[in-house]
């Protein structure tokens, strides 16, 4: 999978060198490049924003640097890449969307700052490639960078080969539409708290049933809407 990120903070993505995704990058499973939007400006101040037409607070990102930066990645014609624009006005990011992103050959993320990117950037690229506006959730971030980091981590670990043991992917929160069950390791007693005895019983059927009950109970308590309740 190839991933390109356009941002005014390319250094922000250096943390992708660490941990699981860093290994995936070293082994060539995922190739990530962060591009500086300001490299696609041509004035002395490397200007990427301007005041909004129609007035209002804040600044809007100018379309020309975005056009030059994205054309530099996908070319100037039709592209098979998926352009992802993180935006609080987008569709909510879910495990299902993470699976869809993980199946792509080439993702391009356009990280806006300020009050957003001139709408014509999305409208233009929508004529040449698939474009998705995706939100991390119902709260406001200062820019798309943190959202893109979350999307790359969630999708990247679903790329075959990135997570060593694929079985560890199936018993997680949201994979079966429920929250995950609580986990315990040694010691069996810690600060007066005992591991639930069923987990020490060796009865695999009883353990599976207990874990499923815990999933339902947790989900009903904190996320009843996931159960349709
Ligand atoms: Cl994707 N971007 C920004 N700037 N704020 C957000 C968001 C994205 N998702 C939730 N809040």
UniProtKB/TrEMBL annotation:
Biological process according to GO: tRNA N1-guanine methylation
UniProt-annotated location(s): Cytoplasm
Source taxon at top rank: Bacteria
Reactions catalysed, as given in the entry: guanosine(37) in tRNA + S-adenosyl-L-methionine = N(1)-methylguanosine(37) in tRNA + S-adenosyl-L-homocysteine + H(+)
Keywords noted in UniProt: Cytoplasm, Methyltransferase, S-adenosyl-L-methionine, Transferase, tRNA processing
Residues annotated to bind S-adenosyl-L-methionine: 112, 136-141
EC code(s) of this entry: 2.1.1.228
Top EC class, one word: transferase
A Pfam entry, by short name: tRNA_m1G_MT
Domain tRNA methyltransferase TRMD/TRM10-type as annotated: residue spans: 1-227
GO CC annotation terms, alphabetical: cytosol
GO function terms (MF aspect): tRNA (guanine(37)-N1)-methyltransferase activity
UniProt function note: Specifically methylates guanosine-37 in various tRNAs.
NCBIfam families: PRK00026.1, trmD
Family: Belongs to the RNA methyltransferase TrmD family.
Subunit field text: Homodimer.
Protein name: tRNA (guanine-N(1)-)-methyltransferase
Species this chain originates from: Agromyces fucosus
Annotated gene: trmD
């Amino acid at each position: 999978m190839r991933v390109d990120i356009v941002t005014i903070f390319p250094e922000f993505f250096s943390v992708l060198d660490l941990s699981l995704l860093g290994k995936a990058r070293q082994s060539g499973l995922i190739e990530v490049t962060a591009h500086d939007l300001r490299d696609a400006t041509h004035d002395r101040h490397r200007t990427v924003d301007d005041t909004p037409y129609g007035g209002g607070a804040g600044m809007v990102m100018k379309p020309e640097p975005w056009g030059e930066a994205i054309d530099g990645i996908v070319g100037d014609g039709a592209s098979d890449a998926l352009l992802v624009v993180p935006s609080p006005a987008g569709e909510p990011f879910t495990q299902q969307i993470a699976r869809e992103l993980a199946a792509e050959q080439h993702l391009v993320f356009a990280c806006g700052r300020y009050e957003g990117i001139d709408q014509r950037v999305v409208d233009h690229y929508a004529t040449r490639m698939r474009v998705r506006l995706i939100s991390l959730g119902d709260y406001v971030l200062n820019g798309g960078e943190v959202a893109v980091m979350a999307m790359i981590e969630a999708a990247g670990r679903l790329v075959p080969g990135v997570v060593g043991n694929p079985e560890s992917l199936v018993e997680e929160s949201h994979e079966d539409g429920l929250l995950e069950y609580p986990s315990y390791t040694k010691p069996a007693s810690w600060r007066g708290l005992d591991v639930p005895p069923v987990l020490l019983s060796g009865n695999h059927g009883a353990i599976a049933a207990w874990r499923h009950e815990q999933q339902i109970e947790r989900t009903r308590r904190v996320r009843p809407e996931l159960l349709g309740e």
